Predict the 3D structure of the following.
Amino acid sequence: MNTVFTGKKFSVEVGPVRFPDGQAHVQEIVRHPACVVLIPIASDGRVVLVSQYRSPIARTTWELPAGTLNAGEPADSAARRECEEETGLVPHRIERLAALFPSPGFCDEEMIFYRATDLRTPPPDSPHHADEDEDIQVRTVSVDEAKRMVEDGEIVDLKTAYGLTLI
């Protein structure tokens, strides 16, 4: 495999891959680190969503908070970090729910879903803040309202639509 592109978030490899039947086929593979998807549940049972602009689709979307694992970072640690960075709340309890590959036909990214509860305000000296290229808005809605947002096309993000089924 030859790496034909290396970017900030992913790389692309192209080349022959030997399949289980012994034949080789040229494949294009996006290499992307694993990510965590948080389902933050407030003490009143409502779910915390975040909104941010997504340039590939040229629109702002409502989503569950999510983010890529740093090199060598355990998924549980990334879940806590990402929840705080994107929502401004620290989960004192997380529960791993599922790990799925959203596009295994061309990408090796694994999405690890967590329920995050017992949400609290972070300490004033916390190092976790939104990335400089993120302008995130936070909204807390009932689970029924979030599911209606999917039905109405207000939530178009597939990881979010699926994550809401895990509640």
